[in-house]
Amino acid sequence: MKKQLISLISAIVLAGTAAPVTASSAETPEGITFTYEKNDESVTITGCKGSDTVLIIPDTIEGLPVTDIGKNVFAGMNELTAVVIPDSVKSIGERSFSACPNLSSVTMGKSVTVMGGYAFSACPKLCSFTVSADNPTYLSKEGCLMSEKGNRLVLYVGGKDAVIPSSVRVITKGAFMGKTDITSVVIPPNASSLGDYAFSGCTSLKSVDIPDSVTNVGAGCFMSCSSLSSADLGSGIKEIRTNVFNACTSLNDISIPENVTAIGSDAFFGCTELNGIYIPETVTSIADSAIGQHYDLRNGQLENINGFILHGEEGSAAESYAAKAGIEFRPFLLGDVDDSGAVDGSDATLALREYSYCMDHPGSTLNLYGRLAADYDKNGAVDGSDATLILKEYGYNLANM
């Protein structure tokens, strides 16, 4: 499974790799041969051959300063454990050091002002990132590499219980990608955006609470988080994008906020523990394979998840999607806790049992649909008043039969 995950992450971060056009080559004392391009004033490293555990980027080649590291140059170097980037370097290209499985420490000089996407993503052992105090663009604090005076989180290299500094507004693409040891994360209450694949491949992450301030969750944001069982989506999210929860095979507790209008392709594909969900009427667009489907590993065929039920309003996009995909659809009925198609005394009993259990225990006695149906007053919690209201409706229905 770990090898499959590394292959998946590598495929994402190494997409677009092409052989560089080279002008010259130079060998380092460590035995790595660089290919590079030069102009009258500087050198750009465009590729390399060989390997070593420690990589010290030279500050000059042929008497010219090394100012740029190109795209993909050191991506996928298995033996690499430490990198030193000198003060001469001003930019680091996309995916330059991505998918280096044993890279644990990086030291970066004062002149780097540009860092491409996924530059250090999918390096699961990276735990130390030191930045020169004289660098005007980047700073390292509490296991976080940040830019824009701490407003943007570029990369997380801290411990398994991740607490993002309160100054962070944007978590950039791939910031946590492939950090397989992360078990929890606290997203600051003023954050506004989670980038593409920001938490992809965090295979130990168990739950996530996205605050209402977040208005953008990028494509593939939590893709392949195989231990993620619950996700609380904030009210600021308008669209659940492509692949956001793809292959989250433990996900069984998630609610779609009523202000969401679109669900992208494969958004919940392969979420095999998600046996039912309610799609609010505000959702007017659901792309192909968005939910309720997976690939059967035995035959490689696209199949509907066994026992999956899609709940929604009659005439809604949810009903249309279910009909097209051949998924069972049931109209949502508030108060029908046991999903029997009617509101009766047993529903009130289940609501009371849920209330009593939650007073003394974490977790729930009900599945996701049951909790939605039991919250009759829609205050976000199941309590005694919900049971009373359910009984009241049951009595009214009996009286008017």
Layout of strands and helices, then pairs:
Blueprint: H1 2-13, E1 24-27, E2 33-38, E3 43-49, E4 54-56, E5 60-61, E6 64-69, E7 82-85, E8 91-92, E9 105-108, E10 114-115, E11 128-131, E12 138-141, E13 144-147, E14 152-156, E15 161-163, E16 170-171, E17 184-186, E18 193-194, E19 207-209, E20 216-217, E21 230-232, E22 239-240, E23 253-254, E24 262-263, E25 276-279, E26 285-286, E27 293-296, E28 301-304, E29 309-312, H2 317-325, E30 328-331, H3 345-360, H4 368-374, H5 384-399
Parallel strand pairs: 3-6, 4-7, 6-8, 7-9, 8-10, 9-11, 14-16, 15-17, 16-18, 18-20, 19-21, 21-23, 22-24, 24-26, 25-29, 29-30
Antiparallel strand pairs: 1-2, 2-3, 5-6, 12-13, 13-14, 27-28
Helix pairs in contact: 3-5
Structure write-up:
The protein has five helices and 30 strands. With 401 residues, the protein is of the alpha/beta class. Helix content is 15%, strand content 26%. It is elongated, with a radius of gyration of 25 Å. Strands 1, 2, 3, 5, 6, 8 and 10 form a seven-stranded mixed sheet that branches. It has a six-stranded mixed sheet with strand order 12-13-14-16-18-20, with no helix packed on it. The termini are far apart. Mean pLDDT is 88; it is low at 16-23.
DSSP strand tally = 30
C-alpha geometry: elongated
The portion of residues assigned to helices is 10-25%
Distance from N terminus to C terminus (CA atoms, Å) equals: 56 Å
User: Helix/strand/pairing class, anyone?
Assistant: alpha/beta
Low-confidence stretches: 16-23
Radius of gyration: 25 Å
- Number of discrete helical segments: 5
**What is the mean predicted local confidence, pLDDT?**
88
Q: What portion of residues belong to β-strands?
A: 25-35%
Major sheet characteristics? 7 strands, mixed
